[in-house]
Amino acid sequence: MEGLVSVTGQREYPGHPIVGVGGVVISGARALLIRRGSPPLVGQWSIPGGILEVGETLLEGVRRELGEETGMEVRVLDLIEVFERIELDPGGKPRYHYVILDYLCEAIRGEPRAGSDVTAVAWAASTELERYALTPTATRVIRRAFEMARQRGSIPEKTR
After folding, report:
1. H-helix segments, the chain
2. Shortest CA distance to 150 belongs to which of 84, 63, 78?
3. Partner of 24 for a Cys bridge, out of 16, 91, 136, 145, CB 3.0 to 4.6 A?
4. Blockwise average pLDDT, block size 10, the chain, 160 residues
5. Rounded distance, CA 71 to CA 92, Å?
6. Full-prediction pTM beyond 0.90?
């Protein structure tokens, strides 16, 4: 987004919690997953998303992050969950501290591809999530997204 000032400071050992945003894209009966290319969670499958930039709204941040990481344009629908991810170093000092807001999204256009700090993308049905060794929090958020999509009628009847 032109004209926005990027987040200053550092992600590792931050001076304050960092706001993160993510989007669970449900298409048909599958959720879009990404494999992270940088810490934290490097090499792990996760929900697409990243750091909110100074001057952008939460919804703008979700759309931007999903565009950067997956190449897809999305419509942000509903807030799924707000949670914290705090990772302590061996001495007990917070190495990472994120406050993350994950949203249910629908794809508007584009085919998913690995972009930005992502090494792979995949579509996964709710019955396939275990294959991706997601964190318990990501699994919970994605399962809630599937339920929300069902309530909205976004998942075809034959796959319910």
Report:
1. 58-70, 136-152
2. 78
3. 145
4. 45 95 96 92 94 97 97 97 95 96 96 93 97 96 97 70
5. 38
6. no
